[in-house]
Amino acid sequence: MTVGGVPGPGWYPDPWFTGQHRYWTGATWTGDVFPTGPADFGATRIELRPTHERPPVPPPTERSPTPPPAPTFNYFSEAPTVAFAPWETLESWPPEHSPRRMSRRTINIIAMATGLVIGFAVVAVALTSRHTPSDASPPPPAAPFFPTAPAPSPSVTQPFDPDASVLQGLVVRQTDVAPTYMVELLNGGSDVVGQTTLDLCNGTYPSESLRTARLQVVEYDPLGASVLSTEAVLYRNPQAARQAMQEVRSVVAKCPRDRAVVSPVNEPTVTTRFLHAPDGSWPKVGGIDRAAYLFTTTDSFGATDQRMAVYLQRGRVLEGLYFDNPAGVQPAVDGQTSVADIVHEFEQRIAALPNSVTGG
Predict the structure, then answer these.
(1) Is 344 within 8 Å of 338 (Cβ atoms)?
(2) Are 125 and 72 contained in the same domain?
(3) Residue ranges making up the domain that contains 300
(4) Is 51 in the same domain as 94?
(5) Which pTM value belongs to this model?
(6) With contact defined as beta carbons under 8 Å apart, do 32 and 7 qualify?
(7) First and final CA of the chain: distance in angstroms?
(8) What is the mean pLDDT of each run of 10 residues along the chain (360 residues)?
(9) Is residue 343 part of a domain?
């Protein structure tokens, strides 16, 4: 339904991504998304639209206070092994650098919710058919209207760096991973102001104000669990990037092992314990400064995760590699399946940048 030229509430093709629909309240977009079809049955991959095709503002992340109505698209001709309810975001916009894997309990809840949606849909169709004459043809489905994205709200001005485009070649790319894996831009992943790069042990990092460009993406496995996040950053000059590396080392050295630290940037309060340095035997690339950390974080509920963060710096370029499950064989990135070899791949990419970009 359209009111005054504005489409009514409903699910419409996502203006920011192909391969999924996003909920429109009748006045604004929400963070509720739903894939065009089950990934296991040949659905269109969810990919960021080209810059000239998508709205000039980041996609919203706030989901509706109550779940929006279920989509009426024919997604369930063949039910996937893991079905997602429309109000789930499929971990598209995780709040942390390394998004958490979905637990079996979460998957079961999602599957049950989807089963209820399907059940209600079947009952509704059955009831409708009782009141429809046998010779009556059902009305044709209305063609989805593509709502115009709402005007951007006032926001802080992001810095401009003429070399920002080089960051696209430094992060993990869709062509680097297997066809069943997906690489997505993190929400706010291209923003500098209002987004965090350094947050180990919830420390304070003054160098954050010296960044001029940033790009962070996440690689997901076929079930929607994150496996790797890469974040490439440009600083004002090489001195600023070196300051960032020094701050990382200083925070790690002073991090309390048995005390939770409150985040200065609204990240979760956690206790961080750094383990042995993981990169003692890794190959090195000349001109690249590397700091690698294997650590555990324990939240206020007692849940503990083991992760790895690797920082690479050359000139004014700094890159963070965040491994969600660093133990053992990794999903292949450009053919590499060990953490050491994957890190080496990104070191070589940074080393190949011209001095005109890195500043030295």
Answers:
(1) no
(2) yes
(3) 164-358
(4) yes
(5) 0.61
(6) no
(7) 58
(8) 58 85 83 67 69 79 80 43 32 37 44 51 48 44 38 64 94 94 90 95 97 95 92 98 98 96 92 96 96 96 95 98 96 97 98 94
(9) yes
